[in-house]
Design a protein that fits this description.
The strands form two sheets. This protein has a ten-stranded mixed sheet with strand order 2-1-3-12-11-4-5-10-8-9, sandwiched between helices. It has a two-stranded antiparallel sheet with strand order 6-7. The two termini are about 20 Å apart. It has a domain of about 200 residues: Isopropylmalate Dehydrogenase (3-Layer(aba) Sandwich). The C terminus is likely disordered. It is built from twelve helices and twelve strands. It is globular, with a radius of gyration of 20 Å. By secondary structure, it is of the alpha/beta class. Helix 5 packs parallel to helix 7. Bound molecules: adenosine-5'-triphosphate.
Length: about 375
């Protein structure tokens, strides 16, 4: 395995460090290379990433672990767009996979729900829709100013993300565990967005016919937001477009305990894929050593699962869950640990060394469990 690591900016640097610590506690033959792309690099060199960098990642690495991108010194976020959107576009990472899985009752903000009620996976289309970058502004600064943002939907784009969601649903452990057919829900707004939404609606149900083992369901995106709060247990796999997926996955992050806990993957099966926490660089927290590293650590778990080590991913999830249960968390979850101590706590739960109770495990020292 060859892993590229791009910690990026702000708390991304701090949380990625903890994910690497956890990786070091696993017995894995893995080559790691860290790339310094982020605001510092951009301000120093004038380039977000060197020429040919994306090709190099695709050619030389199995996966990328990313931190977060964004820095007040680059107010238009140009370098962040170039790196993150560049990675997604260049590597054609069309599936943004965002699990919404609460690891402990204490982190679920809903009054009548338990952790076991919050366990679904959101598939967000990652390459088109409202984030196509197309559009125009006329009459800027005048009273008649008009901005047009083009929301681009292609049959190919919808078909492949729907197919990815159904394919995943067929092996989703929640449905397997409960011994029932997995449910795949698609959310759009084809009542008002008749063209793009209409295409989503038609293609989703066409693809569904080729996955008879799955139950299918449709909700409008606003109704899905309501359902996520009212009855999250009714959801297994949700597929939606780029914009709705972006918004709903923050709601999903809240359902599982907050942005500090939410992992994600930008995936294209068989290609170099990128895993990163859902949160951004959080400049308000950067440098304070208080950011929650669990989202990064769980993203590492997703990366390992993507590379065929679902067993290690589950170990990571269990270790993080045990930390939460024991109150070994950063302050966003009510604990008192620093970012680094929270990373150490996960390592200790994985069976790493615990010299001070929360000690650091040297690479490869952890017994497999
Ligand atoms: P982006 O636009 O890049 O998604 P953002 O500025 O909208 O970023 P984040 O950087 O994700 O949002 O942070 C929003 C807020 O959530 C932060 O100010 C912080 O309070 C909280 N937050 C985010 N990530 C974490 C974390 N890992 N630990 C604790 N709090 C976090």
């Amino acid at each position: 395995m060859r892993l590229a690591v791009v910690p990026g900016d702000g708390i991304g640097v701090e949380t990625t460090r903890e994910a690497l610590k956890v990786l070091g506690a696993m017995e894995l033959e893995i080559g790691i290379e860290v790339f310094p792309w982020g605001a510092d690099h951009f301000l120093k060199t004038g380039e977000a990433v060197p020429e040919g960098a994306f090709d190099m990642l695709a050619r030389d690495f199995d996966a990328v672990l990313a931190g977060a991108f964004g820095d007040p010194r680059v107010p238009d976020g140009r370098h962040a767009d170039e790196i993150l959107l560049g990675l997604r576009r260049h590597l054609d990472l069309f599936a943004n996979v965002r699990p919404v899985r609460a690891l402990h009752d204490s982190v679920v903000p809903l009054r009548n729900a338990r952790a076991s009620d919050v366990d679904f996976v959101l598939f967000r289309e990652n390459t088109e829709g409202a984030y196509s970058g197309r559009g125009r502004v006329a009459g800027e600064g005048t009273p008649d100013e008009e901005a047009i943002e083009e929301d681009v939907t292609t049959r190919r784009g919808v078909e492949r993300i729907c197919r990815a969601a159904f394919t995943f649903a067929e092996v989703f452990d929640k449905a397997l565990r409960l011994g029932r057919r997995p449910r795949v829900l698609m959310a759009d707004k084809h009542n008002v967005q008749k063209r793009g939404g209409g295409l989503w609606h038609r293609v989703f149900f066409e693809v569904a016919t080729t996955f008879p083992s799955c139950e299918t369901r449709h909700l409008f995106a606003d109704a899905l937001a309501h359902e996520m709060v009212r009855d999250p247990a009714s959801l297994d796999v949700v597929v939606t477009n780029n914009l709705f997926g972006d918004v709903l996955s923050d709601l999903g992050a809240a359902l599982q305990g907050g942005l500090g806990l939410a992992p994600s993957g930008n995936v294209h099966a068989g290609r170099t894929s990128v895993f990163e926490p859902v949160h951004g660089s959080a400049p308000d927290l950067a440098g304070k050593g208080i950011a929650n590293p669990f989202g990064s650590i769980r993203s590492l778990g997703m990366l390992l699962a993507h590379l065929g080590r679902a067993d290690l991913a589950e170990r990571v999830e269990r270790a993080v869950a045990a930390c939460i249960a024991a109150g070994e968390t950063t302050r966003d979850l009510g604990g008192r640990l620093s970012t680094s101590d929270a990373g150490d706590a996960v390592v200790a739960r994985l069976g790493g060394r615990t010299a001070t109770g929360l000690g650091r495990a040297p690479r490869g020292s952890a017994p497999a469990r």
